Amino acid sequence: MACIEARGLRKAFGTTIALDGVELRVEEGHILGLIGPNGAGKSTALNAILGLTPYEGELKVLGRDPWTQRDQLMRDVCFIADVAVLPRWIRVSQALDYVAGVHPRFDRAKAEGFLAKTEIRRSSKVRQLSKGMVAQLHLALVMAIDARLLVLDEPTLGLDILFRKQFYDSLLNDYFDRSRTIIVTTHQVEEIQHVITDLMFINHGRSVLNCSMEEFESRYAEVMVHPEQVAAAQALRPMHVRQVFGRSVLLFDNVDREQLATLGDVRTPGIADLFVAVMGPPSRGAPARQGGGSK
Q1: How many domains would you assign to the chain?
Q2: In what order do the strands lie in the sheet with 198-203?
Q3: Which domain holds residue 133?
Q4: Based on the domain organization, do 190 and 247 belong to the same domain?
Q5: Are 247 and 227 in contact, with CB atoms under 8 Å apart?
Q6: Radius of gyration of the chain (CA)
Q7: Cross-strand partners of 247
C-alpha cells in the first residue's frame, strides 16, 4: 500500500516554480530520505504532503487529499521541523499536558517512559535545557503518538554528533515499525544512509533521482583506481571523477562490479558522493550528464 502517492505535483509562487511535475510513491513502512540543496523544493513538497499549501496535480497521503481532508489526516501524522520550535517558556510537564490535550493518540505514560531514560526534569523550562535535551523531549513527545506517518524536516539541525546519533538510533529502535512511514530531509546525508529505505534527490522543483536503497547499493559503485588503470577506467564513462590523496576516484552507474574490481578498490559510494555527482557541475574527465535516474 502506498502511504504517499504524487503524480504531476506542481506548485508555483508567482513566477517561481517550486515544484515542477514531481512524481513520488512511498510505500507504507518505508523511510524516505528527501535530499536537495536550499531552494530545491523540499519544504514545499513537505507542506503539500502536510496539507499546509494548495497544489496542482494529484496527491494522496494515507489515501486522503491533504488539502481538503487535512483535519482527518492530522490524526495519523506527526511533524518535526527544527527542534527549536518548542516554546522556550514552557515547562516539560506543561508540554506533556498540552500534547495530551490536543492529540487523541498521545500516550502520556509512554512519553514519561522515554523521558525517564534522560536527565530531563519535569519542572524544567525548555530554555533551561540544552539543545540535545530539547531534541530528546521533542522525540519523546512524538514517539508517544501512535501516528502512521512521521515527517522530519532537518530534525537534528544544530545538534552535536552524539545527539544526532542518539536521535536516529531512538527513532529506529523505539518508534519505527512496518506499520509506520517516515520522510526525513537533512543536509547531514551521511548520517541517514543506514536509516533510510528509499532515496530521492530534488532540484529546481524536479525529482532528479528516485530509487530504493537496494537499487542504490547494486547500481552505483565507486572505484579508487590503480594509477596504471586510469585510462581504462575513464573509457567506462564514469559519472564523476575526483582526486583523493593523489589517487583518482571514479563513480559509475550500472557498470559490472567484477569488471571494476580489475581497475582498483571498489565500494558503495556515500549518498553525499552520489549527490555531488548528480547535482554538481560535471567533473573533469567525466562525460556531460543527461539527467539523473529514477525508478
Answers
A1: 2
A2: 77-80, 149-153, 181-185, 31-35, 198-203, 206-212
A3: 2-204
A4: no
A5: yes
A6: 21
A7: 244
pLDDT for the residue 136: 85
Predicted pLDDT of residue 82: 61
Tell me how many degrees the CA angle 24-29-35 measures, rounded to the nearest 5. Answer: 45
Which residue type sits at 156?
A: T
SS3 248: strand
Cβ–Cβ < 8 Å for 198, 272: no
What single DSSP character describes residue 175?
I
Residue 287 lies in a domain: no
- pTM for the full predicted model: 0.88
Strand partners, 249: 224, 242
Residue 14 cell numbers, joined:
508567482
Domain co-membership, 25 together with 139: yes
Task: For residue 236, give the amino acid letter.
Answer: L
42 and 143: one domain?
A: yes
For 139-173, b/e burial (b = at least 16 CB within 10 A) is: bbbbbbbbbbbbbbbbbbbebeeebbebbbebbee
**For the segment 226-270, what is each residue's pLDDT rounded down to a tens digit?**
999 999 999 999 999 999 988 999 999 999 999 999 999 999 999
Residues 152 and 178 occupy one common structural domain: yes
Neighbouring residues of 154: CB distance < 8 A, sequence distance ≥ 6: 81, 82, 185, 186, 187
Q: Mean of the per-residue pLDDT values for the chain?
A: 90
Residue 31, in any domain of the structure: yes
Residue 120 CA neighbour count, 13 Å, CB half = 31
Q: Looking at the structure, do residues 182 and 264 belong to the same domain, yes or no?
A: no
Q: Which of 190, 171, 189 is nearest to 181 (CA)?
A: 171
The three-point CA angle 56-60-66 to 5° equals 75
10 and 142, same structural domain?
A: yes
Q: Which of 181, 204, 227 is the last residue of a domain?
A: 204
- At residue 293, does pLDDT exceed 60? no
| 260 grid coordinates | 571494476
| Tens digit of each residue's pLDDT (9 = 90 or more) over 199-219 | 999 999 999 999 999 999 999
**Distance, CA of 171 to CA of 157 (rounded, Å):** 16
